[in-house]
């Protein structure tokens, strides 16, 4: 990261008032807090970004900008941190929000999909069967796409129910996350779906090599 961004990442103080004079795409990434608890945790915590009013607004605006004018019927967020950005995006678009849950939390009929998350743990994701009708155009939102396993499982769930997380040459809805790393799984998603993220090109290598 460039010097200013690195300095802000290392700062323990949460400044909810400061807004830079020039708000270029991704300025709010410096609000994220670094991991201080070891390898079992994600390397950055975006929840400090969500506490900043302007930072959250600009993050959601940047995520949605590539989809301006696109036909989106519903926003779906992935358990759990994807609920924050997904719900904010749905409110901005004035669309409904669908929660894609980790298995065992829904008391209604569901369809399930096993997957391996970024830490290598085997998990199962599920979604209620009555929320997605054939042809429904879905914008899938999560906090982060690292290995791509979680997002790919969510895509499979939506498509199994007949929803459209559109391929690049099809209906233009797709996938949004603060960061999409250039991992094998991340590249698989980028090659097939319209994608949006918040990391400027000059910072992408740092996020890929953490």
Automatic annotation (TrEMBL):
GO CC aspect terms: cytoplasm
Alphabetized UniProt keyword annotations: Cytoplasm, Glycosyltransferase, Purine salvage, Transferase
Pathway: Purine metabolism; AMP biosynthesis via salvage pathway; AMP from adenine: step 1/1
Signal peptide feature range: none
Phosphoribosyltransferase domain segment(s): 69-164
E.C. designation(s): 2.4.2.7
Compartment(s) where it occurs, according to its Swiss-Prot or TrEMBL record: Cytoplasm
The UniProt record lists the keyword Glycosyltransferase: yes
Catalyzed reactions: AMP + diphosphate = 5-phospho-alpha-D-ribose 1-diphosphate + adenine
GO BP terms: purine ribonucleoside salvage
Top-level taxon: Eukaryota
GO terms assigned for molecular function: adenine phosphoribosyltransferase activity
Broad enzyme group: transferase
Main location: cytoplasm
Subunit structure, interactors included: Homodimer.
Cited PANTHER family: ADENINE PHOSPHORIBOSYLTRANSFERASE, PHOSPHORIBOSYLTRANSFERASE DOMAIN-CONTAINING PROTEIN
Membership in a protein family: Belongs to the purine/pyrimidine phosphoribosyltransferase family.
Protein name: adenine phosphoribosyltransferase
Origin species: Tichodroma muraria
Gene: Apt1
